[in-house]
Design brief:
Blueprint lengths: L1 H25 L8 H23 L5 H37 L4 H5 L1 H26 L2 E10 L8 E7 L10 H13 L4 E5 L13 H9 L7 E4 L8 E3 L2 E3 L11 H9 L2 E3 L3 E5 L3 E5 L16 H5 L8 E4 L6 H6 L4 E4 L10 H4 L9 E5 L2 E5 L16 E10 L2
Parallel strand pairs: 1-14, 2-3, 3-4, 4-7, 9-10, 10-11, 11-13
Antiparallel strand pairs: 2-14, 5-6, 8-9, 12-13
Helix pairs in contact: 1-2, 1-3, 1-5, 2-3, 3-5, 6-7
């Protein structure tokens, strides 16, 4: 029922935006007054609005389905800035008119209306292009932390944190190749991957074997460890709502996901703790939202830490930044997370902090170092505005 109400609001919003866009276009283009132009204009908006539904019902893995998925993803990002810029322009106009700041004749001026429309158009295009280009640039973020425990591996360790590749329609071998090259240049002792390898659909991978080989080429002293994220399950997504294709099936984790990680020499930890080289622990947790197949459940912090000798340094990998105080109290030293994308696109980067104790970056939680990365990939539109695609390089200093 919620989806029905939201779809109605969505279609009304698109209709309003289409009307405003046509009205602005008509102030500087005579051809836009012709009936055929209006028909094409509304048809384009209708196609874009329905691209999400069209893609959803197309057979997976076909060229047309992939094309429609890419169109619908970009449309969602552009739609956000259509709503923001046109909405803000209209709100400002109403506020100014009611406050009588400007003369009434100005509001009736076609020239003024056209100029406002031009600036709105420039804003929408600029933000969209910036978001698309910015998302494809992988940056390195560095942290320097101290753990007040001795470590048999040495006085210092370099951890590389990766998360949220969302391999599929947006992220392919080209982006992954850049990421792996950056990781290998860091000369890591251990690589930790905090979930969301995939984007729910294995069929979305263009060249899974090439991706496996790229992950296998990651170099580190102790290997690569990972946990699952909420998108590492087999569900189709329509405008943020998830659907399990087979209602009778209890299998949510596509077995090909696990096979992919095994072939890529990535050690998956699902509520498991591993003592590495008799020097430190790596603890990987099931995802809080999607713990796996029906019947699987996520352990509590106390359960997952049972049996862990906390005299050793304890490094935890969890997709979402949850249970921070509990993990700290149980002897966790470093907690590594992803999931949030740091909000991914404006204004999400300003509101994401309302949802999490640590939505991005570093937080000291009663002596435990919590680091949340914005990740490499994206969810939905292949855009990042005022956030960054990143790989995190962490230098850990241990007590002598």
């Amino acid at each position: 029922m919620i989806a029905v109400h939201l779809s109605t609001i969505y279609l009304l919003a698109v209709w309003y935006l289409a009307r405003r866009a046509l009205a602005w276009t008509r102030t500087w283009c005579k051809t836009a007054h012709k009936k055929w132009f209006a028909v094409i204009h509304y048809a384009v908006f209708a196609f874009l609005a329905l691209s999400l539904v069209i893609e959803f019902f197309l057979p997976d893995g076909t060229i047309f389905q992939r094309l429609m998925k890419l169109i619908s993803n970009y449309w969602l990002g552009i739609l956000l800035y259509l709503i923001l810029f046109i909405g803000v322009a209209d709100i400002i106009k109403i506020a100014l008119r009611r406050s009588h700041v400007l003369k009434d004749d100005l509001y009736k001026s076609k020239k003024a209306f056209g100029i406002v429309g031009l600036f709105v158009c420039i804003g929408i295009v600029s933000m969209s292009v910036y978001g698309i280009v910015n998302a494809q640039v992988i940056r390195t973020t560095k942290y320097d932390i101290t753990v007040d425990k001795a470590c048999a591996a040495g006085d210092e360790m370099k951890i590389v944190l990766m998360a949220d590749t969302h391999l599929g329609y947006n992220i392919g071998t080209k982006m992954l190749k850049k990421a792996v090259a950056k990781v290998n240049a860091m000369d890591a002792d251990i690589v930790c991957f905090a979930g969301d390898f995939f984007d729910n659909e294995y069929e979305a991978l263009q060249d899974d074997e090439a991706m496996i080989e790229l992950f296998k080429s990651i170099k580190s002293k102790y290997g690569t460890y990972a946990c699952w994220g909420n998108h590492d399950v087999a569900e189709k997504i329509l405008a943020g709502f998830t659907f399990n294709n087979d209602k009778k099936s209890t299998k949510l984790t596509d077995p090909r996901f696990e096979e992919f990680l095994q072939k890529a020499d990535i050690k998956l930890l699902a509520d498991e703790a591993v003592l590495v080289d008799d020097a430190f622990y790596i603890v990987g947790r099931r995802d809080a939202e999607k713990p796996g197949n029906t019947g699987n459940s996520r352990m509590s912090p106390a359960e997952v830490m049972a049996g862990v000798d906390t005299s050793y340094p304890v490094i935890m990998v969890d997709h979402e930044p949850r249970d921070l105080k509990e993990l700290s109290a149980l002897g966790g030293d470093v907690d590594l997370n992803g999931h949030t994308h740091a909000g991914q696109v404006f204004p999400g980067n300003l509101t994401i902090g309302l949802m999490w104790d640590n939505a991005y970056g570093y937080l000291d939680v009663d002596g435990m170092d919590n680091i949340v990365t914005s990740g490499i990939g994206v969810f939905g539109p292949y855009m990042r505005t005022f956030t960054k695609s990143e790989i995190v390089e962490i230098t850990v200093h241990f007590a002598a």
